[in-house]
Write the structure tokens for this entry.
Amino acid sequence: NKPIMIEAKALSDDLYTTIELINADTNEVIEGYIGGAGYGFDFRQLMFSPKEDINYIIRVGGSAYEDEELIGDYTIKIKDTAEISPEQTVQGQLEEKDFHNLSYSNQFVDNYLLTGFQEGQIVAFNLSSEEFNPSLKLINIGTQEIIEFDDNNSFNTIDENSDYSDKNARVVFAPEADTNYMVWVSTTEDGKIGNYSLSAEVLENISVVNTVQSGNLNTNDAYHPDREGKFIDEYQLSELKSGDTVKLELKPISDNFNTSLEVYGIKNTGDGNQRISTSNIRNYFDSQAFLVPEDGVEYFARVTSDNKGDTGNYELNITTGKTNLEIYDVNIND
């Protein structure tokens, strides 16, 4: 049941490969290639999870434009999938011998199977590198669809002259029961290889019932995925009840330290995907947010600074009360 990755790459000029997974007992085609659908892609990949008592055949063929019959040399790679578990940090390396990125033919990728994560958690994956601009994708293995991604290219390039050159990518998600996931580590730069660090963090739970959470933003924290040069702390909100009103108030404790508060909700759609809603509050001093929880949604708060590179102590105060609404019928002619 552990996913296997297979890649066929053409070596001869003008050769384009195809790849299929065959049930050896029935000769049925189980799965065809994925990725590399356009001109210039000289490789094909597929991914499958082996089942007991089934024998498999890999069929590699040639593909041609304008009905030409092409033959030639190719290589085939078969790779078991590495694993990553909660609170684990993996030190890895992108190399030219790695599999190719499905989206870009001249970029390389490492794959990690998620193990030990549970429904009800909120998990953050952080990818950092000093040698390439990182790209991180979360994949639903069953559907092979991208659930979340951060290509880290909205404003970031690795600028050695910048104190705040952002060299990390980050995705946050809520695991769904009976769903298998994988993260893909890659880069946005053609031909780039090098060392990287991939960490899996289960967000700390804090209650929304009269809680005061003290914290500290520092240079060891992760970078904000969308706001250059700003560090973050993230907390999963627990003991939420539908119909309550939750007030979050973020106060800086250190001098010359301006805070910013963001609140996110993650809702699984039931098909292995998720939808993230957001309420971003970016004030210069005290930051406040109000939340009315919905059933079936996991929420987390993100603490960050308003200025690049700012660090310091803060307090996050959370209180919860009932939402009291009165409904009136009004005649506009009165």
